[in-house]
Amino acid sequence: MPKALCLISLVASILIVVLFLADAAMGMLGMQDTAPLRAANLTMDIAFILLGSGLIFMSWKTYREQR
Question: Where does the chain cross the membrane (predicted)?
Fold first, then answer.
């Protein structure tokens, strides 16, 4: 069960990073109308990308410890 929770957390954090990375990239390229979150705030995009990346790292390290 702990392995499954680590993998679920890993997948969820990857999705968060991809979502906010796409929003930030589309916002910077001038495609605010097609951005997933309408490029509302670049600072929040960067914060969620960094925090999601940290969660990816922690999930991966925890998953590897459980082998």
Answer: 40-60
**3 within 8 A of 63, measured Cβ to Cβ:** yes
Model-wide pTM > 0.85 = yes
The size of the chain, in residues, is 67
Q: DSSP assignment, residue 67?
A: -
pLDDT in tens, 20-44: 999 999 999 999 999 999 988 999 9
Looking at residue 35, the DSSP 8-state letter turns out to be S
Q: Where are the domains of the chain?
A: 2-65
- Beta carbons of 27 and 39 less than 8 angstroms apart: yes
